[in-house]
TrEMBL record:
Transmembrane segments: 497-523
Region (Disordered): 344-367, 385-407
Subcellular location, record wording: Cell junction, Adherens junction
Any GO CC annotation of this UniProt entry: cytoskeleton
GO BP of this protein: actomyosin structure organization
Protein name: FERM domain-containing protein 5
Organism whose genome encodes this protein: Molossus molossus
Function: May be involved in regulation of cell migration. May regulate cell-matrix interactions via its interaction with ITGB5 and modifying ITGB5 cytoplasmic tail interactions such as with FERMT2 and TLN1. May regulate ROCK1 kinase activity possibly involved in regulation of actin stress fiber formation.
UniProt xrefs under Pfam families: FA, FERM_C, FERM_M, FERM_N
Keywords on record: Cell junction, Membrane, Phosphoprotein, Transmembrane, Transmembrane helix
């Protein structure tokens, strides 16, 4: 009896799994789930822990054993989606950026979105002019340390905070000046609200880039925002397509297709190539979800989308949540006492160290600075948390933009290297405008953005260590082959067209054969229908019936009788 109880308890323990979710303030939430628990169950536990009601904007992100990032699907089993060994590690992040974050009903929701955008600012996903950068940093400073106090904040106090990938002394002075003179008296909630209002006006607000190549083999980054689909190349936005102009999203292998219908019935098909089929499928699913969330009026309008052509099996996916309009209507009905918010304050942040102290390297020669920026290993390390860092430059912004971070990790201790520069040049970004001599580095960084090789320890989504020189060299050969494959898009298109035509011919012939068999069976049956009766009376049918069908039927009957008799004898 005791052994039965012990075996039963051991089996129940085997069906339970420990999950750790890293939150936006870098704290961790740990819970235990059953083997068959759905993603919705874990997400509800997390939102209950955060006291969050406006939860449709958020999601849980994880990395599979192949180092590909995913959003946790709430209708499927958590264990089956992760496909890794427990304990499971995931991250709580903003999945759908609010079109107007200042219009969110509850302060707790605005605070979580504030934390996400602060991370975007630090990791280079939210780029802006120097003047806008100083104002955003001053809002963060006011929210975290309050009003300027000469007794507590000595000269140069803003240099002890890391808001961006790199600082200049001029920018630090500007941040301190705005904090001292313009923001005095603002509460943390007010500063966060003003921060959101300013961030919303930036062109890269809500950008979540996916690395790809266009049909010419040039590096490109695709992103889905609250307002539409964006294509980024180098440091410029080359396409912006509103959601109501996007008619279809499709992928085949590594190829992603975007069908666009613009004014005057002008139809466009944009084609891009992802690094791997898994990355392309992730891109497609993100596009389906964003289009449904921002474009549709009701969740009842959501339909299952297939990536396949006619007659051919492909991936099927359906967005399972509510749409933006329904979320706003539901938020307006919330009536409760505002929940208490425990702000992170001065606690050091590992992945978004806006309040960590780091060395500021001043007077670095420009040649040395560029050498630092084209280091492959540092480039890989710099993106381990962001997973989407993309240099973007808007043609509407005349000022210079903030480049990306260069940071490295040694023995699990983060070292933030901040390079001072009076003018922020887009050419110094982690992902420069693609040219021939930097193509390999660019592809390495693109693979890193998808989480392919480097450590993602900062997000605690993978325990892979920092790649060695041998790993980088081996990866270089693989990426060169990938670049060569993308260098011949015309041949790929021709081959795919020929294969599609051959498959269509085979399917057509198969359907005709099946229809012919069905017609023969129906005409040889006893169905008394005028159509079949007319066919039976034709000389051709009678000849076919007596010369071919009857002998074939007798042959089949003979064979069946022989097989049956053989089975009976045995």
């Amino acid at each position: 009896m005791l052994s039965r109880l012990m075996s039963g308890s051991s089996r129940s323990l085997e069906r339970e799994y420990s999950c750790t979710v890293r939150l936006l303030d870098d704290s961790e939430y740990t819970c235990t789930i059953q083997r068959d628990a759905k993603g919705q169950y874990l997400f509800d536990l997390l939102c209950h822990h955060l006291n969050l009601l406006e939860k449709d904007y958020f999601g849980i992100r994880f990395v599979d054993p192949d180092k590909q990032r995913h959003w946790l699907e709430f209708t499927k089993s958590v264990v089956k989606q992760l496909r890794s060994q427990p304990p499971f590690t995931m991250c709580f992040r903003v999945k759908f950026y609010p079109a107007d974050p200042a219009a969110l009903k509850e302060e707790i929701t605005r605070y979580l979105v504030f934390l996400q955008i602060k991370r975007d600012l630090y990791h280079g996903r939210l780029l802006c002019k120097t003047s806008d950068a100083a104002l955003l940093a001053a809002y963060i400073l006011q929210a975290e340390i309050g009003d300027y106090d000469p007794g507590k904040h000595p000269e140069g106090y803003s240099s002890k905070f890391q808001f961006f990938p790199k600082h200049s002394e001029k920018l630090e002075r500007k941040i301190a000046e705005i904090h001292k003179t313009e923001l005095s008296g603002q509460t943390p909630a007010t500063s966060e609200l003003n921060f959101l209002r300013k961030a919303q006006t930036l062109e890269t607000y809500g950008v979540d880039p996916h690395p790809c190549k266009d049909v010419s083999g040039n590096a490109a980054f695709l992103a889905f925002t609250p307002f539409g689909f964006v294509v980024l190349q180098g440091n410029k936005r080359v396409h912006f397509i509103k959601w109501n102009e996007v008619t279809k999203l499709k992928f085949e292998g590594k190829t992603f297709y975007l069908y666009v219908s613009q004014k005057e019935e002008k139809k466009i098909i944009l084609t891009y190539f992802a690094p791997t089929p898994e990355a392309c499928k992730h891109l497609w699913k993100c596009g389906i979800e964003n289009q449904a969330f921002y474009k549709l009026e009701k969740s009842s309008q959501v339909r299952t989308v297939s990536s396949s052509n006619l007659f051919f099996k492909g991936s099927r996916f359906r967005y399972s949540g509510r749409v933006a309009k329904e979320v706003m209507e539901s938020s307006a009905k919330i009536k409760r006492e505002p929940p208490e918010i425990h702000r992170a304050g001065m606690v050091p942040s590992r992945s978004c160290p806006s309040i960590t102290h780091g060395p500021r390297l001043s007077s670095v020669p420009r040649t040395r600075r560029r050498a630092v920026h084209i280091s492959i290993m540092e480039g890989l390390e710099s993106l381990r948390d962001s997973a989407h860092s993309t240099p973007v430059r808007s043609s509407s912004h005349g000022d210079t933009f903030l480049p990306h971070v260069r940071s490295s990790r040694a023995d699990s201790n983060e070292r933030v290297a901040v390079i001072a520069d009076e003018a922020y040049s887009p050419a110094d970004s982690v992902l420069p405008t693609p040219v021939a001599e930097h193509s390999l580095e660019l592809m390495l960084l693109s693979r890193q953005i998808n989480g392919a090789t480097c450590s993602i320890e900062e997000e605690k989504e993978s325990e892979a260590s920092t790649p060695t020189a041998a790993d980088v060299e081996a990866l270089g050969g693989e990426l060169r082959a990938l670049c060569q494959g993308h260098g011949k898009p015309e041949e790929e298109q021709v081959n795919k067209f020929v294969l599609s035509v051959l498959r269509l011919l085979l399917v057509t012939m198969g359907l005709l054969f099946v229809l012919l068999l069905l017609l023969i069976i129906l005409t040889e049956s006893d169905l008394d229908i005028a159509f079949f009766r007319d066919i039976r009376q034709t000389p051709e049918f009678e000849q076919f019936h007596y010369q071919y069908f009857c002998p074939l039927r007798r042959w089949f009957a003979c064979k069946i009788r022989s097989v049956v008799s053989l089975l009976i004898d045995t």
